[in-house]
Amino acid sequence: QAHFVESGGGLVQPGGSLRLSCQASTSASDAYSIGWFRQAPGKGREAVSCIAKSEKSTTYADSVKGRFTISRDLEKKTVYLQMNNLKPEDTARYYCAPACTIVALQGYDNWGQGTQVSVSS
């Protein structure tokens, strides 16, 4: 089972940018769609974006469309999330996982530590 390590978070001002990375421990992750999820304090985990294993299909939550871009580098076993025009409501801990929806991850117990994104002036 592949493990994922998230990185790239930080503190930025509104309107700023960050690029998150999701590094897989094994190339077996190439066989899966990879999703980015986030969880803000006191809220449930929500899906943010997903990229298919073929790289030909990407999806985004309505709240991030036009601002976030997901991509993957199969050679580096890494999925990226470029986040532009960040807003305070994007503040959350971001995680990646081998699926696109929370429903598909029911029972999934291999969550990484995530990476914290804080947007504040």
Give structural attributes.
mainly beta; four-stranded antiparallel β-sheet; six-stranded mixed β-sheet; 121 residues
Describe the protein.
The protein is mainly beta and 121 residues long. Helix content is 0%, strand content 43%. The protein has strands at residues 4-7, 10-12, 18-24, 34-39, 46-51, 58-60, 68-73, 78-83, 92-97, 115-119. The strands form two sheets. The chain has a six-stranded mixed sheet with strand order 2-10-9-4-5-6, with no helix packed on it. It is globular, with a radius of gyration of 13 Å. The protein starts with a strand and ends with a strand. The mean pLDDT is 93.
Q: Layout of SSEs?
A:
Layout: E1 4-7, E2 10-12, E3 18-24, E4 34-39, E5 46-51, E6 58-60, E7 68-73, E8 78-83, E9 92-97, E10 115-119
Parallel strand pairs: 2-10
Antiparallel strand pairs: 1-3, 3-8, 4-5, 4-9, 5-6, 7-8, 9-10
Describe, in short, the structure shown:
0% of the residues lie in helices and 43% in strands.
List low-confidence stretches. Answer: none
Strand order of the largest sheet: 2-10-9-4-5-6
The profile of the biggest β sheet is: 6 strands, mixed
Structural class: mainly beta
Order of helices and strands: EEEEEEEEEE
Can you count the beta strands?
10
Could you tell me the mean pLDDT? 93
Tell me, what's the shape? globular
Q: What's the total helix number?
A: 0
Whole-Å distance between the termini?
Answer: 40 Å
Portion in strands = 35-45%
Proportion of helical residues:
under 10%
Rg value: 13 Å
